[in-house]
Design brief:
Biased composition (Basic and acidic residues): 13-24
Keywords: Ribonucleoprotein, Ribosomal protein, RNA-binding, rRNA-binding
CATH architecture: Alpha-Beta Complex
Largest sheet: 3 strands, antiparallel
Radius of gyration: 24 Å
CATH superfamily: Ribosomal protein L22/L17
Structural class: alpha+beta
Region (Disordered): 1-38
Pfam family, one: Ribosomal_L22
Order of helices and strands: HEHHHHEEEEH
Strand content: 25-35%
Number of domains: 1
Family: Belongs to the universal ribosomal protein uL22 family.
Shape: flat
CATH class: Alpha Beta
């Protein structure tokens, strides 16, 4: 007689997938979100473009001396992302990690609609925009190819 393979339950498979995702999230990049910031997304994207791809120290300096309205809020968000990264990676030192801003994106938030008096009894609509900012911080990782080339250079 042929052996019958035991089929695992769907709930067990779901639990295993969920645990694998959580384990991957513990070691991956750090994500920080800021919601309902009362500035327009267009203005915030101008600041986000300045720090995208930069190293963390340089990005903090840029934000500290940037005169635009959203810069202090993005600076605070970046500090939050750095602290959550250090909480995830307790075995690594922050100075040795070589952190950089992996990605920043700004989405539109809710819009408050107000009415403003206009001539001849009419009304104009005022749209007070807000935005949501998501910032991802990660460390540079050396690939195997980089390690091999440095070993060859040291042998020569």
């Amino acid at each position: 007689m042929a052996e019958v393979a035991k089929k695992t339950k769907r709930s067990v498979l779901k639990r295993e997938k969920r645990d694998a995702r959580q384990e991957a999230a513990k070691n991956g990049p750090s994500v920080a979100k800021l919601k309902n910031v009362p500035t327009s997304p267009r203005k915030m994207r101008l600041i986000a473009d300045l720090i995208r791809g930069e190293r963390v120290n340089k990005a903090l300096n840029i934000l500290k001396y940037e005169p635009k309205v959203g810069a202090p809020k993005l600076e605070k968000l970046l500090l939050s992302a750095i602290s959550s990264w250090t909480a995830k990676h307790t075995d690594l030192k922050l100075e040795e990690a070589d952190l950089y801003v992996k990605d920043v994106f700004v989405d539109g938030g809710r819009i408050l609609k107000r009415l403003r008096p206009a001539p001849q009894g009419r009304a104009h609509r005022v749209r007070k925009r807000s935005n949501h900012v998501t910032l991802i911080v990660d460390s540079f990782k050396k690939t195997g190819a980089e390690v091999v080339t440095t070993e060859k250079e040291t042998k020569e």
